[in-house]
From TrEMBL:
Transmembrane segments: 6-27, 55-72, 78-97, 118-137
Species: Paenibacillus tianmuensis
Highest taxon of the lineage: Bacteria
Matches recorded under InterPro entries: DUF2269_transmembrane (IPR018729)
Name assigned to this protein: Predicted integral membrane protein
Keywords: Membrane, Transmembrane, Transmembrane helix
Amino acid sequence: MYSWLVFIHAVSAMVSIGPFFVLIPMLRRLKTADGDLLHSYLDSFRFVVRLSKHTGHVLVASGLLLMWLGGWPWTTPWIFGTFVVLFASLLFMARAFSPTIRKLREPEHDRQALLRKLSRSLYLYLFVLFVMLWLMIMKPMLW
């Protein structure tokens, strides 16, 4: 049972991080896309954000089960650090992507400024995801 949970946890981490890399080349194409093409790119962004949210639920649930079954206490530095970064990333994700994608659908907004914001959010969110991944894999003793 424990090894299956580790597998589920690892796969959900890959699925929650991996699709964001598809969005990197799409950022360049968003600069010149119009009409239906623009909307299809923005739909792809929205899909990746939703997929990440839902796989994040599986990731957190399987992580909590692994903690419980493995006897890991909440005070373990890398677990505590992961949850601090996780809650910060939830707040960040709620404000970073969806409002910007909604504004990009409206023609009267400055597309270049919004794309810079979307790009910055994408790279920052990937960094945060990699920090959590580092904490879970390396299990550093922070204190």
